[in-house]
Write a structure and sequence with these properties.
435 residues; mainly alpha; 3 domains; 4-stranded mixed β-sheet; 4 strands; signal
Length: 435
């Protein structure tokens, strides 16, 4: 009876949401933790959400300028301009403002960004090319971890084509053993923002998620030279993840913080999604992970599903993917709850994240290709376009009436925009995939 009540409530909510009007488009040493601090650990499960005054101060100083330039970039992208270099600098700026106190670097990168907006299209597109110097992509990034992050999608695109990189992947030399990679990951685990003004969460998330794709996705194995011991490096990262980092009570991974003499461990939706997804659900404590995913629904991102009071397609995609991986391990009640949440997510995404002609709302993102990639990824994960991916429905014959029409609208929009980034190409591949 309880399961039916939950399902009925979800269906009612989904219908209400579905009636809403559509939005308009718009090398470091390992960190050591004092034993006394470990004994005084505060878990996020206790209700503690880390807040840092530094982030507020940096936003107050730079957000108006950042928002104005971002708006300009999005408007120019919507007119079909290629602004790859500018978008990379913008992404790096967002990290500097949100996660560091490095005002001099922010000022410098703002000037770099302004100059980049005057570059001709071929100079903008050059940021998509592999570097002959170290073999990385992301030529307008300065930070190593962002170049690693920018290299994951091009490598996956090469794998789809059955091609190889033009240059050796020298940028991975600093993590070319299990010991080196574990030491790098360990050095990012604990942030002491009050002491050094740096929150290492973003580097942990983007850097390790990109490395996880390169090391765990089987289709990428052939891209590495035999002398690069990929399996051993991957095992070093797995051992760190499973035996040092994952929380045994929640099944989640997340950054840890030194705050007021205590060690605060967090449950991070995005980081957990990346680890579980790129390992295809082959993780310890998956039952605990499922329970935690359902429990953190009302928390703000990254500790839950909500972003600025609502949910966006990026975070919803993370949630649905985790629910898919955990579905075989759920109880009947958990499946009913998950089904209810997925109905709400589907209705919200269909009615609030895009307009009537299939254009995604870009406001939560830094670029148009992000908006399309995460929107398409969510609908793909939900099985909106493909019955074989509809893991969650209790009605096997159910299919959205507008699935083919919507698929074609989105494809037409992508073609019209003319954006040829790896992220947009990945969105296209998901749209044209068939059972």
């Amino acid at each position: 009876m309880r399961r039916l009540t939950t399902a009925a409530l979800a269906l009612g909510l989904a219908l209400v949401l579905g009636a809403a009007a559509p939005a308009q488009p718009q090398q470091q040493q390992p960190t050591t933790i004092p034993a006394a601090m470990v004994d005084d650990t505060v878990y996020l499960i206790d209700g503690y959400l880390p807040r840092f005054s530094l982030k507020k101060a940096m936003n107050k100083r730079y957000a108006p300028t950042f928002d104005k330039i971002q708006k300009t970039i999005l408007e120019r992208q919507a007119r079909g301009e290629t602004l790859t270099c500018s978008t990379q600098i913008l992404t790096e700026l967002a990290w500097l403002i949100q996660y560091t106190n490095e005002t001099a670097r922010v000022d410098k990168r703002l000037e770099d960004l302004r100059r980049s907006l005057k570059l001709p299209p071929e100079r903008q597109r050059a940021a998509l090319l592999q570097s002959p110097d170290d073999g990385s992509w992301g030529g307008c990034y300065e930070e190593w971890f962002l170049r690693v992050y920018a290299s994951a999608d091009p490598l996956k695109q090469l794998a789809v084509q059955g091609a190889r990189p033009a240059y050796p992947l020298k940028f991975l030399e600093r993590v070319d053993s299990g010991e080196k990679l574990a030491a790098y990951a360990r050095s990012l685990l604990v942030s002491d923002v009050g002491r050094n003004g740096r929150n290492q969460r973003k580097e942990m998330n983007l850097g390790l998620s990109a490395l996880s794709q390169m090391l765990f996705l089987p289709e990428l194995a052939y891209l590495f030279e035999p002398s690069w011991q990929r399996d051993r490096v991957a095992q070093g990262l797995k051992d760190f993840m499973d035996h040092e980092w994952q929380d045994p009570e929640t099944g989640y991974w997340g950054p840890w913080y030194k705050i007021d003499g205590k060690l605060v461990k967090t449950e991070d939706l995005s980081i957990t999604f990346h680890i579980a997804s790129y390992r295809n659900g082959d993780i310890p404590r998956i039952r605990e992970m499922v329970r935690t995913t359902l429990r953190i629904r009302d928390r703000p991102y990254p500790f839950g599903w909500h972003d600025r009071g609502t949910q966006n397609n990026h975070h919803a995609y993370d949630v649905v993917r985790l629910l898919r991986l955990g579905w075989p391990h759920m109880t009947d009640e958990e499946r009913a709850n998950a089904w209810a949440e997925i109905l709400i997510i589907t209705a919200r995404a269909r009615r609030l994240s895009m307009n009537s002609i299939g254009e995604f709302d870009v406001s939560p993102y830094s670029s148009l290709d992000e908006a399309y990639y995460f929107g398409v990824s969510l609908f793909d994960e939900l099985g909106y376009f493909r019955a074989s991916k509809r893991f969650w429905t209790f009605l096997p014959s159910w299919q959205p009436e507008d699935s083919e029409e919507l698929r074609q609208k989105i494809l037409d929009n992508i073609e019209h925009l003319g954006i040829r980034t790896p992220m947009m190409e990945a969105a296209k591949r998901k749209l044209i995939a068939s059972d």
